[in-house]
Structures are given as structure tokens and as C-alpha cells.
Amino acid sequence: MTPNKHAVALASGGIDSSTAMAIAIKQGFLIHALSFDYGQRHRCELDAAKNVVRSLGIEDHVIAPIDLRAFGGSALTDDIDVPKNRDISRISDGIPVTYVPARNTIFLSFALGWCEILKAQDIFLGVNAIDYSGYPDCRPEFLEAYEHLANLATKAGVEGSSRYRIHAPLLQMSKAEIIRAGSEAGVDFALTHSCYDPSPEGLACGACDSCILRRKGFEETTIPDPTRYRS
């Protein structure tokens, strides 16, 4: 395995990041998985990330601690109610309170730093701009701009020893298409977690935007939904 076939992949433990990692593996990349303990209320996603990474045969997994609760400003990092039972047609209207300010910019910066250490040139993440909650850092314009920044703001980029690439293989897929792609790539969805407001036991609420999109995705496929809901 040559250094430029190594890649860093963001691993949240959800359907999207898990599928993106599995696709990267199918493309021949040796994946170094990166997760974040950032003070999220749905911290059980880290256990899901560990289980998914292990199931995909990935040996290198870093969980980086960042305290984004120090700033708050999101229902995921502050004492703000998670929106529930929103109409599916309005989920992507506007930017919801579950948006964590600059989260993907922060996460990609860590991934980029690790790439420099590994002499890797590729970063995979599971962002999606079709069935999603309207987050500004999930759009193709953001990814293009960040890739440009990556090649301006790094020693390897300036010296020309690396050309960084941001891969978002799910960007234009519906949730149902992502689930089908993940199933074909060997993702065990029973290990994944999507809920923004789970019970203390890790059961999904079934009513937050993420749960609604997840349930809709499975309903549009023939793949059984393995999610454990509160009711």
C-alpha cells in the first residue's frame, strides 16, 4: 500500500459516514478512521462508530476530544430542545437548531492535519445534499472551497508533495440510495446510530429530523430497518 492510497475518513457511527468508509475501502484505500467526542448529546454515536469501524476491518481509529459545548449554540451541544416531528417536506428548509456551528470545517481541519502526518492525500466524509437537514457545511460549494483551502494552507500543499482531495461519494444520493450502496458495500446498519436525542439506553427517539430521514430511507428500500426505537 503506497502512502497516497491511505485516506482519513470521518466516522460518526451513522449510516452516511459508515457507507462512505465502506465505499472508500472498495476503492482500494487503507482507511484511518477519525471520530470526535465533541460534547454531543448523542454521545452513544461514538460506540456505534467503534463498532462500525471494527466491522469494516479498519485497524486505525482515533477519537479526538473537542469541547464544542464550550461555545454551545446548537441543540446537539447546548441545553436546547431537539426539534421533533417536523414535516418531511420542510426538514431541509432553512438551517435547523441542530446545526453545530462550523462543525465540518473543524472536523475536516483535524482530518487534514492527520493526512499531513500520514502523507495521505484523501479525505472521505459522508455528507449529503439531498435527504439532509439543510446544513451549510454539507453543500458541494463548501467541499470545493475546503479542498482549495487544504492545498493552500498546508506544508505539503505548498511544497507540491501532496494534492489533497475531499471525497463525498454520497453527496447527490437520496437516503434510500445511500442505504442500498451501504448494504452492497457490507455495512451492518444494526451497528449504526442516527438519532439526535436518544434515550439513556441508546434507543432512537423516532421523531427528530435524523430519525425521520433514516426511517424514510429504509421504507423506500426492501432492506429491513434494524433501528431500536423507544416505541
Do you know the CATH topology? Rossmann fold
Helical content (DSSP H or I, runs of 4+): 25-40%
Q: Whole-number average pLDDT?
A: 94
Please compute the radius of gyration using only Cα atoms. 17 Å
Task: Give the second-level CATH assignment, the architecture.
Answer: 3-Layer(aba) Sandwich
Provide a descriptive summary of the structure in words.
By secondary structure, the chain is α/β, with parallel strands linked by helices. The protein has one domain: Rossmann fold (3-Layer(aba) Sandwich). Helix content is 34%, strand content 11%. The chain has seven helices and five strands. The protein has helices at 15-26, 45-55, 103-118, 140-152, 155-159, 175-184, 209-219; strands at residues 6-10, 30-37, 60-65, 122-124, 165-167. Strands 3-2-1-4-5 form a five-stranded parallel sheet, with helices on both faces. Strand 1, helix 1 (15-26) and strand 2 (30-37) form a beta-alpha-beta unit. Helix 1 (15-26) crosses helix 6 (175-184) and helix 6 crosses helix 7 (209-219). The mean pLDDT is 94.
